[in-house]
TrEMBL record, chain A:
InterPro entries: RNA3'-term_phos_cycl_insert, RNA3'_phos_cyclase_dom, RNA3'_phos_cyclase_dom_sf, RNA3'_term_phos_cyc, RNA3'_term_phos_cyc_type_2, RNA3'_term_phos_cycl-like_CS, RNA3'P_cycl/enolpyr_Trfase_a/b, RPTC_insert. Belongs to the RNA 3'-terminal cyclase family. Type 2 subfamily. GO terms for molecular function: RNA endonuclease activity. Keywords: Nucleus, Ribosome biogenesis. This is RNA 3'-terminal phosphate cyclase-like protein. NCBIfam families: 18S_RNA_Rcl1p (TIGR03400).
UniProtKB/TrEMBL annotation, chain B:
It is found in: Nucleus, Nucleolus. Residues 455-469, 546-574 have a biased composition (Acidic residues). This is Bms1-type G domain-containing protein. InterPro entries: AARP2CN, Bms1/Tsr1, Bms1_N, BMS1_TSR1_C, G_Bms1/Tsr1_dom, P-loop_NTPase. One of its GO terms (biological process) is maturation of SSU-rRNA from tricistronic rRNA transcript (SSU-rRNA, 5.8S rRNA, LSU-rRNA). It comes from the Eukaryota. GO terms for molecular function: ATP binding; GTP binding; GTPase activity; U3 snoRNA binding. Residues 85-250 form the Bms1-type G domain. Belongs to the TRAFAC class translation factor GTPase superfamily. Bms1-like GTPase family. BMS1 subfamily. One of its GO terms (cellular component) is 90S preribosome. Keywords: ATP-binding, GTP-binding, Hydrolase, Nucleotide-binding, Nucleus, Phosphoprotein, Ribosome biogenesis. Residues 11-32 have a biased composition (Basic residues).
Length: 378, 1219
């Protein structure tokens, strides 16, 4: 039987394309992956992601041409199960890059997934694993994912450039998700957070907290930021520190912001050798900046922050054929891309209406009716 | 009243003396009698006596009843069909010659008062105010039965009562059961063959009992007693119709998750010239039918049963050819509303197409009026002919076809009236009311308009097509062959669709807009003119003409474009755009601010009618010719494509770049403070409520002035705040109230649906308050809660869907369940058209997610108990899974205790087993029915097995036992080299560490492949090295004569074979031939079954074992003590020396010997004497005893005699005394 491939172009939203192709079992061909760039073809983290998809699913086919500019992907059946061998995510992107597609993939697997991921846990580019734990996982619960068996454990931390972090993710299996009506953003009632530091003084954390609290204190008294100082093998291979904040509203929405500070990767600094030994950003500035960013997110409105819009849209799209209604702040670039990918793969469109009063955007749409078909019945 | 009642003399009851009632009561009496005789009846006299006395028993009974209650419940199914339901399909099935067609004809006659000449294809009938049914006759072959079972909502199983059940009925029942069990009703026919009423009754009983065991106790069996004038009895048909009309249908899980269409009309739309050129070319076909199951989305693939998988080239919703009557309040159906539609049977009068409606009028119903005057005079009978008649008559005088005339008229326009816009003409053509508008137009023009009327009336609803034609021609003539034209044409397509919807309403929405307007616009420049033409009726006021400014005009145009979304008629008007408008379009494109949805999803190509791969094709084009391109053009292209390009290789990152840090310093904090619980809650609540209001009814204007309040922040008017807060609260309360009411309404509706009849909305509203306590009482049950939740969700969805406008709804939801669809499919093999048979309905089923992929499936299979033989692994069977039918080769297996899947050569006799096969994947829980033989004349039961899909996989892990046999070739102490077990060293490596054993039971292990220099003799001798010799160790030394076994499991491959059944691509009466089983092939080629002699059973002959004597070595014997020394010397053959020789005694010895002899003689004699004496004594003693005995007996007799005499005397005395 001849398989018809869906043809796509470019490296944009690579993860979602793979994810949606696997969930909708559509074979895809991606052409022109960074064809015109200095470093053409797939990057390390993308290769690693493909490997991860291969481990988790059964009988999937991945073909990459010599230059890495063309990818042929035929999805298999998502198996899940306990993966005894840890997956090496490399040091080019942080673990959250891999977690984002993986948590959706794992929900529709044959067996509950447990996997160890090694690499960078905290990064300024991707959301940190702390944010992931505090925001993304509770979001799944809202869509009917059972709480037991859903966990993310941070064994050790690692920051760029050398990484060395390790997390253990375990995910339950669902039959199907359930649609949500999630438009009430509520008021921020508490702010929680966690700071970390690896291979630097624990005092860095305290100063970050102090700076952040300084901004929150006039607004809210219920602010608790915990510290997580790691040393020895648990601290990974590079020095760094960072903070992740979550604001919880009265309606249970979680709005998060995070950042991490560390030395830059080698490849990025290849051009400018001289200031590779540049000093890190002072912790006070970090704390102050992240608090401002969080406030910015809160001010935008919406039930999730801009980082998690994509995840929210995907979850809505994978619901049964019921209407989901959600509210987000400004549509982020990633969110828009997600919406487009959902349209391309699942043939779903959301009704998007701006709400000028609150400067937010209301989305509603019917789910695809995704069911976990690989699960065995007895 | 009461008095009257008392006075009233009722007729006394007269009990029956004969007939059915009498028999019934007699029987009842008899039964009672019998029970009385048994004495068991007493129990029932006093029920109180049998109330429970023990609490345990009561508890048990209660728990049992609760359990029974729970067992009755099923997980509620979400019903996602929101619109009007499609007609229910009633499949009439039965063996040949049982009266299927006649039943359908009778039913159709009953409903519509029409005689149906021939039952071909589905027949749709409006059977009631709320219900339509579609009758389909099930074909007699097994393929047709399988397909029919997939779309049947109700199956009428016709059974020949005089003959009894036939296999077809049971086959069909089994097929129904595996593909979700729709409603089934048995109908007995041919009952008039029974002359004897008793026999008839008996047969009815018999059949009913059998029918009940097959379905469930109490399944409805209907009796049709016989024929009157070749039709079933009217009364009985009426009753049957009643049964059909009150039947309730429950959703079946496969069908609610897959869209499907039962095709009631089939057209081949391949261009005839193409067919003419090549008769075997792939065809384009259109299929028409109601959409059932769930919603059909754009881009869904379909499976046409018996043909294959296709993607739909175009899907169009057509107006319902057989609509339900409008919901006016009246009882029953009017005759006018008793519509029916059966295009395949040639009965329906109307045929709807995408762009035309055809009316069939039977020739005998049509009266053609004659053209000549004298005839017409005769018909009009001297009356003056009225205007309409004259008009019609004039129409008959036409000599040219419409096309020709239109061409002519067009040339006219172009030559004489260049200012007149083509659109205006088109509009003029379309409108009926053209009496007033053309005062200034010349005669020729009027003439043309007359023709326009003609086309309009002639087509009766096909105006749209005419209009299109006209429009197309204008486009051609105006020689605007630029690209934009194409685009606008495409826009016009959805307009066609709309056109039909309009037609359905029976009126046109467009007002006449020209006349003066056109003329005015004639004065203006041509551009202005166009705008005016594109204006709809609403904007026909002279606003736009007042403004000469181009820019303003453009703005207007913008507005119009926006209006277009709502007013579809405009799309028609956009039909042609001349060249100069291109720049205008561009300008508008650059200027207009698209909506958020457009921003996200790009240019909305609301082209739902034609599902094509536009994007792909455009991509290809680009790749062809985009080597050098001006940058502007590329940009333009990207604009058109919807902002998508240009970020092909952006980094994939969910976290957006930290924006320009806004410092939320203390001054600015006020802005964000209200987002916190510590902020001003009232203001915040205001914000929330505003948003709520927005979502509910979207009236920004009402709250528009509050915006200042929020941002201004200058004054803190508590008063207003409070007021606002209270209103907010009120709003909340109101909302909650509303929600509660809604809930209650739902509940009521739901409860009222439990009893049989559906409740109308009016009643529903009335029920609200009444049902309230009832609902609360039921609140506790989990089941009810679940149901309520589902219902609520459904209502919410409906509400959301109703909010959307038609286009968006279509985009989001797809075509609704119950719409009449036209499906266009391209590249269908010509055989489908060639062998199309209306007696075989076509089923088009939508393919779900991932179901077009192929893989291994695991199913739980059981051989059917009626099927004679067991099934063999890898013998091809034909399975029906989901919509599909295909042939595949299953491997049967069973699961061992440790979870291993062990292959079975044959299916077990009476148990389930697993079947693994390769084919298009079906989701778990899908039923499968398997057949092996499709031929009709096979006498036995054709269904071989039934199964259900458990899971699917990309690899099947089935194993079977394997036994490797080897022989030692060299033996060391406990190590031995084993040959012939493996063929290569690689194989040895695979089995390293495997357990082995010898025949004598010595266990061992495979170590490694033997090294050449040690194990391989041939090498040393200069020959080839022998591979596959394994070094093994054993727990003891083995012998060269031992045989070594290795027992292991080996993977079994499931053949990657599946062969779709293409029964629609061949003559229906031919049996489909697929892969044949090995047995069939052998039979065909007369080949014997291969025989392995080793496998034969032979008589076991065992020789007596001969054991050698035990030999004890001499040295050992010597050492043994005497007792242990072997003494059993064998018997000698030769005589011993003693025996041989004669022995002579000496004299002394002789004396001794004689003495001995004397002694012995004396002893013997004395012994003899003693014995004689003893004998004598014993005899004497016996004599004595006998004497004694005699004496005693005598004495005893005397004694007894005395005693009895005394007794007798006493007795006599007593008697005397008594007397």
């Amino acid at each position: 039987m001849k398989t018809e491939y869906k043809r796509l172009k470019g490296s944009q939203s690579f993860r979602q394309r793979l994810l949606l192709a696997t969930l909708s079992s559509t074979p895809i061909i991606i052409d022109d992956i960074r064809a015109d760039e200095t470093w053409p073809g797939l990057h390390n983290h993308e290769i690693s992601l493909l490997r991860l998809f291969e481990t988790v699913s059964d009988d999937c086919l991945v073909q990459i041409n010599e230059t890495g500019t063309k990818l042929k992907y035929k999805p298999g059946i998502i198996m899940g199960g306990t993966q005894h061998r840890p997956h090496d995510c490399g040091v080019s992107r942080s673990i959250a890059y891999f977690l984002e597609p993986l948590i959706l993939l794992g929900l529709f697997a044959k067996k509950p997934l447990t996997i160890t991921l090694k690499g960078i846990t905290n990064d300024f580019k991707d959301p940190s694993v702390d944010t992931f734990k505090s925001t993304a996982l509770p979001m799944l619960k809202r869509f009917g994912v059972p709480a037991e068996g859903l966990s993310l454990k941070i064994e050790s931390r690692g920051v760029p450039p050398n990484g060395g972090g390790e997390v253990v993710l375990s995910l339950p299996v669902v039959q199907s998700l359930s649609a949500v009506n999630w438009t009430e953003e509520g008021f921020v009632k508490k702010i929680r957070g966690i700071t970390f530091s690896t291979k630097v003084s624990a005092q860095f954390e305290n100063s970050m907290i102090r700076a952040a609290r300084g901004i929150f204190n006039p607004l809210l008294s219920d602010v608790h930021i915990f510290t997580d100082h790691r040393s020895g093998p648990q601290a990974g291979n590079s020095p760094g520190y960072g903070i992740s904040l979550v604001a919880e509203t009265t309606t249970g929405c979680l709005i998060s912001a995070d950042t991490a500070v560390s030395h830059a990767r080698h490849e990025e600094t290849a051009g400018l050798e001289d200031d590779s030994k540049k000093d890190l950003m002072p912790p006070e500035d970090v704390g102050c900046g992240i608090a401002n960013i969080l406030l910015g997110e809160i001010a935008q409105g919406g039930v999730v922050d801009s980082t998690h819009q994509g995840l929210l849209f995907l979850l809505c799209a994978l619901c049964p054929q019921d209407f989901s209604k959600i509210r987000v702040g400004k549509l982020s670039q990633h969110g828009i891309e997600t919406l487009r990918n959902i349209r391309d793969f699942l043939n779903l469109k959301f009704v998007i209406k701006p709400d000028p009063q609150t400067q937010s955007v209301l989305l509603k749409g019917m789910g695809y009716g995704m069911k976990n078909l690989s699960r065995k019945i007895s | 009243m009461a008095v009257n009642d008392a006075d009233q003399s009722n007729r006394p009851h007269r009990s029956r003396h004969s007939g059915a009632k009498k028999a019934k009561s007699d029987k009842k009496k008899k039964q009672q009698q019998r029970q009385n005789d048994d004495g068991g009846d007493e129990k029932r006299q006093n029920p109180k006596a049998f109330a429970f006395s023990s609490t345990n028993k009561a508890k048990r009974l209660q728990s049992r009843s609760v359990e029974k209650e729970q067992r009755r419940l099923h997980v509620p199914i979400v019903d996602r069909s929101y619109g009007e339901p499609p007609p229910y399909v009633v499949v009439v099935q039965g063996p040949p010659q049982v009266g299927k067609s006649l039943l359908i004809k009778s039913l159709v006659k009953h409903y519509t008062k029409h005689n149906l000449p021939d039952v071909r294809g589905p027949i749709t009938i409006v059977s009631g105010k709320q219900r339509r049914v579609q009758f389909v006759e099930c074909p007699n072959d097994i393929n047709g039965m399988i397909d029919a079972a997939k779309f049947a909502d109700l199956a009428l199983l016709l059974i020949d009562g005089s003959y009894g059940f036939e296999m077809e009925t049971f086959e069909f029942l089994n097929i129904l059961q595996t593909h979700g069990f729709p409603k089934v009703m048995g109908v007995l026919t041919h009952l008039d063959k029974f002359k004897d009423a008793k026999k008839l009754r008996k047969r009815k009983q018999e059949l009913k009992r059998r029918f009940w065991t097959e379905i469930y106790d109490g399944a409805k069996l209907f009796y049709l007693s016989g024929l009157i004038h070749g039709k079933y009895v009217k009364r009985e048909v009426h009753n049957l119709a009643r049964f059909i009309s009150v039947m309730k249908f429950h959703p079946l899980s496969w069908r609610t998750s897959h869209p499907y269409v039962l095709v009631d009309r089939f057209e081949d739309i391949t261009p005839p010239e193409k067919v003419h050129a090549n008769n075997k070319c792939d065809r384009k076909i259109t299929l028409y039918g109601y959409l059932r199951g769930c919603n059909l989305k754009k881009g869904n693939k379909v499976h046409i049963a018996g043909v294959g998988d296709y993607s739909l080239t175009a899907v169009t919703a057509l107006p319902d050819p057989c609509p339900l009557p409008s919901a006016a309040k009246k009882k029953g159906l009017r005759d006018k509303e008793k519509l029916f539609y059966a295009p395949m049977s040639g009965l329906g009068d109307l045929l709807y197409d995408k762009d035309a409606v055809y009316i069939n009028i039977n020739d005998h119903l049509v009266q053609f009026s004659k053209v000549d005057d004298e005839n017409s005079a005769m018909t009009s009978k001297g009356k003056d002919r009225d205007v309409g008649e004259v008009l019609v008559k004039s129409l008959q005088n036409t000599k040219y076809s419409i096309n020709e005339k239109l061409e002519n008229s067009f040339i006219n326009i172009f030559g004489q009236k260049p200012e007149m816009s083509s659109e205006a003409v088109a509009d003029a053509l379309a409108t009926h009311k053209d009496n007033k508008h053309d005062s200034e137009e010349d005669v020729s023009d009027r003439d043309q308009h007359g023709k326009a009327i003609e086309t309009g009336e002639d087509g009766d609803g096909s105006e749209s097509s005419d209009q299109d034609e006209a429009g197309a021609m204008m486009g051609e003539a105006s020689s605007s062959d630029d690209r934009d034209d194409d685009a606008t044409d495409m826009k016009a397509i959805p307009g066609d669709l709309k056109e039909h919807v309009e037609f359905k309403d029976g009126r046109r929405r467009r007002k006449a807009i020209f006349g003066n307007d056109v003329d005015q616009s004639d004065m203006m420049d041509s551009k202005e003119d166009n705008d005016a033409a594109s204006d709809d009726a609403a904007s026909s006021d002279s606003e736009s003409f007042k403004e000469d400014d181009d820019d303003d005009d453009d703005d207007d145009d913008d507005d119009d474009n926006d209006d277009d979304n709502e007013d579809d008629t405009d799309d028609d008007d956009m039909g042609n755009v001349s060249k100069w408008k291109e720049s205008l379009a561009e300008r508008t494109l650059s200027r207009k601010t698209p909506s958020l949805m457009q921003l996200v999803y790009g240019e909305s190509t609301v082209n739902m009618t034609s599902i094509n791969k536009q994007n792909d094709s455009s991509d290809d084009e680009e790749s062809d010719d985009d080597f050098f391109k001006p940058i502007e053009e590329v940009k333009k292209q990207s604009m058109k494509n919807g902002l998508n390009d240009g970020m092909v290789n952006t980094e994939d990152c969910s976290k957006c770049e930290p924006s320009v840090d806004q410092r939320w310093d203390k001054k600015d904090n006020e802005g964000i403070r209200n987002r916190f619980v510590t902020g001003n809650l009232a203001k915040a609540a205001l914000r929330n409520s505003l948003s709520n209001g927005n979502t509910e009814e979207e009236n920004d204007e009402v709250y528009g002035d509050f915006e200042d309040l929020e941002t201004g922040e200058k004054y803190d008017n508590y008063q207003t705040d409070d007021a606002v807060a209270t209103t907010v609260h009120k709003g909340d309360d109101a909302e909650a109230e509303q929600r509660r009411l809604k809930k209650l309404a739902l509940r009521a509706k739901f409860d009222s649906q439990y009893p049989f009849f559906p409740v109308t909305p009016e009643e529903d509203a009335g029920n609200d308050e009444k049902s309230k306590p009832h609902g609360q009482a039921n609140e506790s049950s989990y089941f009810d809660k679940l149901k309520e939740e589902i219902e609520l969700r459904k209502q919410m969805n409906i509400a959301e869907l109703n909010d959307l406008d038609e286009d968006t709804r279509l985009e989001i939801e797809g075509f609704r369940n119950g719409t009449y669809l036209r499906l266009e499919v391209h590249d269908v093999p010509c055989e489908m058209v060639e062998y199309f048979d209306p007696y075989h309905p076509i089923l088009v089923g939508g393919i779900g997610l991932g179901e077009e992929n192929v893989g291994y499936m695991q199913a739980k299979l059981k051989r059917h108990r009626f099927h004679k033989k067991v099934l063999k692994t890898r013998d091809p069977i034909i399975v029906s899974v989901g919509w599909r039918r295909y042939q595949t080769t299953p491997v049967y297996a069973t699961e061992d205790l440790n979870g291993r899947l062990r292959m079975l050569k044959y299916t077990p006799e009476h148990a389930h087993c697993f079947a693994f096969f390769w084919g298009p994947l079906a989701p778990p829980n899908t039923g499968i029915v398997a057949v092996q033989n499709l031929s009709n004349n096979q006498a036995t039961f054709r269904i071989t097995a039934t199964a259900v899909v458990l899971e699917y996989n990309h690899a099947a892990r089935i194993v079977k036992k394997i036994k490797l046999v080897g022989y030692p070739c060299k033996i060391f102490k406990k190590t031995a080299f084993i040959k012939d077990m493996f063929t290569s060293d690689l194989e040895v490596a695979r089995f390293e560490g495997a357990a082995i054993r010898t025949v004598s039971g010595i266990r061992g292990q495979v170590k490694k492949a033997a090294k050449e220099e040690i194990g391989n003799q041939p090498k040393r001798k200069g020959g080839q090295t022998k591979e596959g010799i394994a070094r093994c160790t054993f727990e003891d030394k083995i012998l060269m004569s031992d045989i070594v076994f290795l027992r292991a499991w080996t993977q079994v491959e499931v053949p990657d074979f599946y062969n779709p059944l293409t029964t629609a691509l061949q003559p229906r009466d031919k049996t489909w031939l697929g892969m044949r089983t090995v047995a069939e092939l052998r039979r065909e080629h007369n080949l014997p079954i291969p025989l392995n002699k080793d496998s034969l059973y032979k008589k076991v002959e065992r020789k007596r074992k001969k054991y050698n004597p035990l030999v004890i070595p001499k040295s050992l014997q010597e050492k043994l003590p005497f007792e242990s020394k072997p003494k059993n010397t064998p018997k000698r053959k030769r005589k011993s020396l003693d025996q041989k020789r004669a022995v002579v005694m000496e004299s002394a010895e002789r004396k001794i010997c004689r003495l001995y002899q004397h002694y012995r003689l004396i002893a013997n004699n004395s012994e003899k004497k003693r014995k004689i004496n003893a004998e004598k004594k014993r005899k004497e003693l016996e004599k004595e005893r006998a004497k004694d005995e005699l004496l005693t007996r005598k004495r005893q007799r005397e004694e007894r005699r005395v005693r009895y005499r005394a007794q007798d005397k006493q007795n006599k005395r007593m008697r005397r005394a008594e007397a």
